[in-house]
């Protein structure tokens, strides 16, 4: 059984990217955070303190993003996923989807992005 805790469309204003303008002016990224979680401990006694908090997932994403500058969305997604696994013992897998609506490419598109998934075992 795989239960899930997730956050959809978290918007972070960041200074990441390969292009100098991205590092200087910044840009918006939109993130989905999807965690496979063992919720048995928290539901046993309806205990919030044993649950994975949505707000905490957002804070982790912001902390990782603010800690340093990333050239690649892949590196940012990896950092967020690994930080979630480090913080929450009951998260078995963290999948981070990052959408970049202002990708500096000469085409019209809604967004470009990456999906990074990290598991506790394997």
Give an account of the 3D structure.
The protein is α+β, with helices and mostly antiparallel strands and 122 residues long. Helices cover 33% and strands 34% of the residues. The chain has 4 helices and 4 strands. The chain has helices at 20-25, 40-44, 54-67, 73-87, and strands at residues 3-14, 27-37, 91-100, 112-119. A 4-stranded antiparallel sheet has the order 1-2-3-4. Helix 3 (54-67) packs across helix 4. The longest helix has 15 residues, at 73-87. The chain is elongated and about 55 Å long. The two termini are 18 Å apart.
Reading side by side through the largest sheet, how are the strands ordered? 1-2-3-4
Helicity range: 25-40%
N- to C-terminal distance: 18 Å
Q: Summarize the helix and strand pattern as letters.
A: EHEHHHEE
What portion of the residues fall into strands of 2 or more residues?
Answer: 25-35%
Strand elements, count: 4
Overall spatial form:
elongated
Query: What oligomeric arrangement do these chains adopt?
Result: single chain
Largest sheet data: 4 strands, antiparallel
- Secondary structure class reads alpha+beta
Entry keywords:
122 residues; alpha+beta; 4-stranded antiparallel beta sheet; 4 helices; 4 strands; 33% helix; elongated
